[in-house]
Design brief:
The complex is a heterodimer.
Chain A (H helix, E strand, L loop, with lengths): L4 E2 L1 E3 L9 H5 L6 H6 L1 E3 L5 E2 L1 H14 L6 H13 L4 H4 L2 H11 L1 H7 L5 H9 L9 H12 L6 H7 L2 H8 L7 H11 L4 H14 L10 H17 L1
Chain B lengths: L1 E9 L20 H14 L8 E10 L1 H10 L2 H15 L6 H8 L5 E9 L13 H6 L21 H5 L5 E7 L11 E7 L3 E3 L4 E15 L2 E5 L1 E2 H10 L9 E7 L12 H21 L3 E6 L4 E3 L9 H8 L14 E8 L13 E9 L11 E5 L5 E6 L10 E6 L11 H12 L12 H6 L4 H20 L8 H7 L22 E9 L4 E9 L6 E11 L5 E5 L1 E6 L5 E5 L2 E7 L5 E7 L15 E11 L2 E2 L1
Parallel strand pairs in B: 2-11, 15-17
Antiparallel strand pairs in B: 1-7, 2-3, 3-10, 4-5, 4-10, 5-7, 5-9, 6-7, 7-8, 11-12, 13-14, 14-17, 15-16, 18-19, 19-25, 20-21, 20-24, 20-26, 22-25, 23-24, 26-27
Helix pairs in contact in B: 1-8, 12-13
Classes of the chains: A mainly alpha, B alpha+beta.
Chain lengths: 232, 627
């Protein structure tokens, strides 16, 4: 097994180094400036970054620009190489470091520059918004959909970007049993069913306590809703 | 007649008959409620001298000779015992069996609780006037409290003293403040609250209320009169209720017991519960130096310190930093805050009231915090008592858990209160029900203020919830639509278009009041819209129902089936899922009632029916153009 390497974080001040030119891929950030704003993660967690480098390189060479399928190809690698706690993953600085310092080519390869604001989110999003930072979203979606090391649901989710959008932009996506149930039930459905069913599921949750649901109960609930959505 | 002893009014044919103590059923009873009520009463009687109110809870256990002397001082054998036996025999909802056998058992201990408050007004006034003394020893359900900021305005509080007495008997010893009878202090009297009872010895029916006193003949008949001065001091010593000669009152609960428990918990446990309850509900007053609480047992004395209850510490930290300029939370332990507007309607007599703000602050939780009251907001005003811990766990998400405070009225700033703080304090006091555990629409509010009081409270809570979401939202980069729309509701950021209702700010031109509920199979709602500006050529309002998701996102509109308006001169039109009402310059107000189509789905899990908001938009055609 490869040697584990220390994880770093980009400090809040360091975010100021990320300007429009960098976001567009027209400029790099000065190494010296950057090193002043990079610090080890609290508690110094480590990860297998060499393997992650390889996984990222493979994706960069095998997929053409902006191909959404690279998400599914990389999510498992990101999650397995970054074997960290959720607490560690909750620190936005880690994801800023990974996106800005470690893998900016991946971020630009995956996401076309549409606006400064949108691209800034891909580099400097994270925190409570799952669907933001380009690497953070891969890790979290894998974290919430992997079941005992089995990434089947994760891969299914990433084959369908509607699912990624509709499920992980909702608050119930923070509760793994609900996520797994919803993703399983919806993985083969067309976009309009996914859209309507997740909205309706979200509405039904105003009557019950989400965290009181088991995976089984959540699945029963979403399947009934899917049936109704399709018959109406 | 000038007779010392227990005095009970005898009931003539028309006299009211009491079963159990009528106030006993009004509030839930456990030791936490007891502490809360008792401290609230002491806190309300604070003297106006910047000195803190001090309260000591002192547990005393008596056995042997001490117990005998105490009972003798209480004239146990001369009246009380006989009456307790009579009540028990008559089986009128109250049994004193256990107490009687414990008194007779020379080995059994008698437990007393003395609540001693200092730097308070004391039992001032006379029997025949509206006074502290009369409110405590004469009346049921009647309140006479210091001023507008007092914590209680119903008078239920004192009744807990009797409820927690196994003998339904409480002794008072007081040093009076002010002039008047102050130099005759101390003043002592005991009062019992029994059911109506008969005595076999004289075949007379007695009312339940009795006093250990001097009964005196007056123009209005016999009146119980307190003991004063030397005589009171001597009796106080025998009854274990001596107190330092400073203004305030000591109340002694004879045979202290918690009516909600079968077991008698040991004193250490009770003392811990008292300290915890004191801090839980009064940390703002303690923190601000307005209140000091101690709990004494024969073994130790513990001060109720705000740092002594880990579950409360995060709230204290949040309050102490509430005026931080931060509006967003980054790391565990961070505090951020916002002003929440509250527009108080005019008083009932028509006098205008200033609009003001209350201060919301939240502290991001860390894993090291005690999470007993996680994701709640402590609501309080000048009295320094937490009205309740308002559960807002729906606003928390992911790792964004919090502790919040809403500091209102005279608790808002550490500086002297503004006119609006004082008005808000008064307004919210009247918004408290008898239990003082909520801010809501009450009869008191209806009597004190003009229309709009309910909307004012609902708007405050609505803005509080949105404000919390804003404080908890992620703090960097990206777009945050919810947070932006929330900001528009805070006047400090300019008057953006409101999502729901009119923002309570200076540009307000309508008063809108509404209620809605789910009635079996459909939503029903009613409300009122009134332009509150003088000049307009006409106006219109749009009413719609929108169901929302667990995270507050909008789902679908709910179609409205019926809408009726009292005024016949308005035009009503149904457009898609919105109903519009158009009025001309002659219509000063519309009142409406309506309902949605019935849902054919009663299943709460179908996603068909769920949280729904009533949205009312109003628009004015004014001479200067649309507003």
């Amino acid at each position: 097994m490869a040697e584990e390497q220390t994880l770093y974080r980009l400090t809040e001040d360091g975010r100021r180094l990320v300007g429009e030119q960098f976001l567009k891929g027209e400029a790099t950030i000065d190494e010296d400036d950057l090193s002043e704003h990079v610090e080890p993660m609290p508690g110094e967690p480590t990860a297998d970054l060499e393997s992650l480098d390889t996984a990222v390189d493979t994706v960069l060479s095998e997929y053409s620009e902006f191909e959404t399928a690279m998400d599914g190809a990389l999510a498992r690698g990101v999650h397995q190489c970054l074997d960290i706690t959720r607490r560690t993953a909750g620190d936005p600085g880690l994801w800023h470091w990974l996106a800005v310092v470690r893998y900016p080519e991946f971020v630009r390869h995956r996401w076309k520059y549409r606006s400064e604001e949108a691209m800034r989110e891909k580099f400097l999003g994270a925190g409570s918004d799952l669907y933001s930072n380009a690497i953070h979203r891969l890790w979290w979606i894998a974290e919430l959909t992997a079941v005992d090391g089995d990434y089947t649901v994760t891969e299914d989710v990433f084959t369908n970007q509607t699912m990624v959008n509709k499920v992980f932009d909702r608050w119930f996506a923070r509760y793994r049993p609900a996520v797994v149930a919803v993703c399983r039930a919806l993985s083969d459905e067309p976009s309009w069913v996914i859209d309507e069913s997740t909205r309706r599921f979200n509405h039904a949750l105003t009557n019950i306590q989400l965290e009181g649901l088991s995976e089984r109960e959540a699945e029963d609930l979403i399947r009934r809703i899917i049936t109704e959505v399709k018959s109406s | 007649m000038d007779d010392r002893g227990w005095f009970f009014f005898s009931g003539g044919p028309g006299a009211p008959r009491y079963g159990d103590d009528p106030t006993k059923h009004a509030v839930d009873h456990d030791s936490e409620a007891f502490v809360r009520e008792v401290l609230q009463n002491a806190n309300d009687q604070a003297l106006d001298n910047d000195e803190p109110v001090e309260v000591t809870f002192r547990f005393v256990t008596l056995t042997g000779e001490e117990k005998r002397l105490f009972l003798e001082g209480l004239e146990w054998q001369d009246g009380l015992r006989e009456r307790l036996e009579s009540v028990t025999a008559a089986d009128r909802g109250r049994s004193y069996d256990r107490l009687l056998s414990r008194i007779d058992d020379s080995e059994a201990e008698l437990r007393l609780l003395i609540v001693e408050d200092r730097n308070t007004t004391g039992l001032t006034g006379d029997w025949d006037e509206d006074s502290n003394y009369a409110a405590l020893v004469r009346d049921e359900l009647y309140s006479s409290k210091q001023d507008d900021t007092a914590g209680g305005s119903y008078g239920l509080g004192k009744s807990v003293l009797w409820t927690f007495s196994g003998a339904s008997t409480v002794v008072f010893n007081s040093f009076l403040s002010g002039d008047g009878d102050a130099d005759r202090s101390p003043r002592l009297i005991a009062r019992s609250k029994f059911p109506t009872h008969e005595l076999t010895s004289d075949d007379v029916t007695y009312q339940g209320a009795g006093w250990l006193c001097r009964s005196k003949d007056t123009e209005n008949g016999v009146r119980p009169e307190s003991f004063w001065g030397e005589e009171a001091s001597e009796l106080a010593e025998r009854l274990q209720i001596e107190r330092p000669a400073v203004d305030g009152t000591s109340a002694l609960v004879v045979d202290f017991r918690d009516p909600t428990r079968d077991e008698r918990p040991d004193l250490d446990q009770l003392a811990d519960e008292f300290v915890e309850a004191s801090v839980k509900y009064f940390w703002p007053a303690i923190y601000r130096g307005d209140l000091k609480v101690e709990v004494e047992t024969p073994d130790e004395t513990v001060e109720a310190d705000v740092d002594s209850v880990p579950a409360i510490t995060p709230f204290v930290e949040c309050y102490s930093s509430r005026f931080t300029e931060e509006e967003q939370l980054e790391n565990a332990g961070d505090v951020a805050g916002l002003d929440i507007p509250l527009s108080v309607p005019p008083r009932a007599d028509g006098s205008e009231t200033p609009d003001g703000t209350v201060r919301l602050a939240a502290r991001l939780a860390s894993p090291a915090d005690d999470d007993t009251y996680l994701n709640t907001v402590a609501l309080f005003r000048g009295a320094g008592m937490v009205v309740k811990y308002y559960d807002q766990s729906r606003v928390a998400f992911g790792d964004r858990n919090f502790y919040g405070v809403l500091a209102a009225g005279e608790a808002r700033t550490d500086h002297p209160s503004s006119e609006s703080d004082e008005e808000i304090d008064r307004f919210l006091r009247f918004a408290e029900p008898p239990e003082h555990d909520e801010w809501e629409s009450t009869e008191n509010l209806r009597e004190q203020y003009q229309r709009g009081f309910r909307t004012a409270i609902e708007d405050m809570f609505g803005t509080l919830r949105d404000g919390l979401r804003h404080l908890l939202a992620k703090s960097n980069g990206g777009t945050d639509a919810l947070s932006d729309s929330v900001l528009n509701r805070f006047p400090i950021h300019g008057s953006g278009a409101p999502r729901v209702r009119n923002p309570p700010d200076l540009s307000r031109v309508f008063e809108i009041d509404s209620t809605s509920r789910f009635d079996g199979d459909r939503w029903v709602f009613s409300g009122r819209v009134e332009p509150i500006v003088d000049e307009y050529e006409g106006w219109s309002t749009e009413i719609s129902l929108t169901s929302i998701g667990e995270d507050g996102s909008r789902y679908d509109d709910v179609a409205i089936e019926t809408l009726s308006v009292e005024d016949e001169d308005v035009a009503i039109s149904f457009e898609e899922d919105t109903v519009s009402v158009v009025a001309d310059s002659t219509t000063g107000e519309i009142r409406f009632e309506g309902s949605s189509y019935a849902t054919n789905e009663n299943d709460l899990l179908s996603g068909d029916v769920g949280e729904t908001q009533l949205e009312i938009r109003a628009e004015l055609d004014s001479p200067e153009g649309d507003r």
